[in-house]
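Task 17 of the worksheet. Students: predict the tertiary structure of the chain below and write it out as structure tokens. Keep your answer in the requested format; marks are given for formatting as well as content.
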Amino acid sequence: MNLDARTVSLEHRLQTASFRKLSVVIPVYNEAENLEPLCAELEQAVGPLNIESEWIFVDDGSSDDSVAVLRRLKHRFPAIRIVKLRRNFGQTAAMQAGFEKSAGDVVVSMDADLQNDPRDIPCLLKKLEEGYDLVCGWRRDRKDPWISRNLPSKMANWLIRRVIGTRIHDNGCSLKAYRGELVRMFRLYSDMHRFIAAVSAMSGARIGELIVTHRARKHGASKYGISRTFKVLSDLFALKLIARFGSKPLLGFFTLALPFGLPGFLLLVFVLWHRLGSSPQPMRVVNETVALLFIGTWCFLLLLGLIGEMAINATRPRLKDGAQLILEELKGGN
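Model answer:
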């Protein structure tokens, strides 16, 4: 995940004590049974806030009746907006699409499986008013299976804190509150929704944390398991490289090229030194081949670094990936 080049300075944070509009972004994938009770809870939680709100349900290629249920519920809950993706792209892409469609000066993200409690939304907004740009929910008392969900989550969060240096306890919790200007700077990909807090912190955002309620799933099946641990590890490695070398790719590739360049030049000097000597001809050929291979790799990596530098400094319009994934936004109740 990266922040758009047209970054709005975080020095100009919204400091008003009240928000004008709330956008709730909810990725949906085969959650038909959970949608009606979720909307009822949202109305109870958001209604008393006396703030204009929109509930952006992003259907991530559901194969059940999720979209049909949302169409029906829209007559009862006018705040519902339905965004339908072309196919199942994953939670990160769904969140990105929802963020790009949001119009609120404050945005809340949450899951559609009823494990997040909408009654925590007012508390998150109150915490956000203390001057934070992002408030993360912390599921301290998780109601998930220990082996398949809790243990991998604890390991991943510990690793993220060690590698990235953030103090957030629960990076995987979808229940978060953001200031709108921060959300619309996001460009999420892969499974980077887990690292929103980490990237925001590296970008200078003020981040808070609040203990939230976590409930056991009543309907449907979880979409995550222990297999996601390896994906998290690969994304964490990529994020660390981006954080360290994203704005200076030449330095990154130069560092990567050193183990090839230095031995290559030393071996080439050794070959030239012994060319007039008595070394066997086959041995000289092997040494020359290895030296040229190492030097060629060194030059190739440096060239990639230069290309990266030119790409970073190039000024061209950026395409919003989330907008390309959207098939349609359903209007009205039909």
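Marker's comment: The longest helix spans residues 281-313. DSSP finds eleven helices and ten strands in the chain.
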